[in-house]
Write a structure and sequence with these properties.
The complex is a heterodimer of chains A (229) and B (225).
Chain A lengths: L4 E2 L2 H4 L8 E4 L9 H10 L4 E4 L9 H7 L3 E6 L8 H8 L4 E4 L2 H13 L4 E3 L13 E4 L2 E6 L4 E11 L5 E2 L8 H6 L1 E11 L19 E4 L11
Parallel strand pairs in A: 1-12, 2-3, 2-9, 3-4, 4-5, 9-11, 11-12
Antiparallel strand pairs in A: 6-8, 7-8, 9-10
Helix pairs in contact in A: 2-3, 3-4
Chain B lengths: L10 H9 L7 E4 L18 E4 L3 E5 L20 E8 L2 H9 L5 E4 L3 E3 L4 E2 L15 H7 L2 E5 L11 E2 L12 E5 L3 E6 L2 E7 L5 H6 L5 E9 L3
Parallel strand pairs in B: 1-2, 1-5, 5-8, 6-9, 8-10, 12-13
Antiparallel strand pairs in B: 2-3, 3-4, 6-7, 10-11, 11-12
Helix pairs in contact in B: 2-3
The chains are: A alpha/beta (229), B alpha/beta (225).
Chain lengths: 229, 225
Amino acid sequence: MIDKQKASLAEAMAGIKDGAVVLIAGFGNSGIPVELIDALIDQGAKDLTVVSNNAGSGRTDVAKLLASGHVRKLVCSYPRTSGSVVFEEMYSAGRLELELVPQGTLSERLRAAAAGIGGFYTPTAAGTKLAAGKETRTLNGRDYVLEMPLKGDVALIKAERADRWGNLTYRLAARNFGPTMAAAADLTIVQARHMVELGGIDPEQVVTPGLFVDRVVHVPNPKQAGTPG
Amino acid sequence: MKGFALKGLDREAIARRAAKDLWDGAVVNLGIGLPTLVANYVPAGREIVYHSENGVLGVGPSPLANDVDPDLINASKTPITLVPGASIFHHTDAFVMIRGGHIDLALLGAMQVSAAGDLANWSTGDEKMPPAVGGAMDLAAGAKGVYVLMEHTTKDGVPKIVEACTYPLTAARVVTRIFTNLAVIDVTKDGLVVREMAPGVEFGALSANTGAKLHLASDWRQIGA
């Protein structure tokens, strides 16, 4: 029998190693797996590389993870947002390495890793300083930049519904990076607001097939990212 | 280089003028700031589909305070609603739409636009400022058309339309039309062509407030006329 559900957040986090690349889904405060992030801090893995679109606001969730000192490097498209105080402090103090990636390139690098693609050429960032040091080719008269896949050791995902096979649905625009990141990591860990029986999600409505998911933990009343407490 | 103060249109009037160029059925991505006002002024009878980079097609008006949902936001992270017919999809699809040329128009703000249509709108190049790029480079490189809405000069009167951008580029040779408080200007292979000027603005004064050579179209009109 396949049962990916774990009884506790601690159990869901077991085995994450120092130096891991951790993909964290979410956009702004929407779709951030707050409870999984807290559990990762408690689990204690250090020297992490975190891949996330933003760097958190206030001192909760992603910002709290940065402030924990467990993160060496952030791969991100838009770290500086209103309230991104922890990121700004750490970046200014030289305590956090930053790899800035255009948002679509970030998403596509994750997808490439998920799809087994060895690299791809994109016109995004051609001729800009974010293409510095990267191979550029002119194809059909247009400049393209070579971008490499971005694979996670771990992905942390917030879902609305899950079954024990790991089939997922998401809530509204909280879906954002979830499906791509779930497919792009070796160990995909999901927090789900609702656990349903197998068949409880119409097969046509499954957004992330369970194949991409390794562990699921039931978090019935998830905290909204960016809210204190 | 400094010009003298020319007031021209207010922000709402710039947005109103740009809105006239959105055609019925257009799929449009509105950037942060001034472009977000455009949706308020689309002429009646035109259906525009608004795209948001975080996975929404069919963005509707801002919600009332009681209807705010933290899982319905736009690229600026502000609350949105969905119109009937809206769809939700994941980030990679949202950027397939942007990067694959499926978005008709990106309406963006800018710090500088060059005579060749180069766009600078993501960084002042100040190394002490933590950087952030978001979807700016994807939109600029991938949308079928890139329109810029901005004040013609900085608050200090420094031209923002220039021969060559001094700020770091977002993308090269992508802007096709510029809407400012003073004029509507097309970026063409023959240079910058002034199609319309705001009431009270003369070509000499407009040129004095512009850091690149302008050509006045023979059939130019007054904005709003």
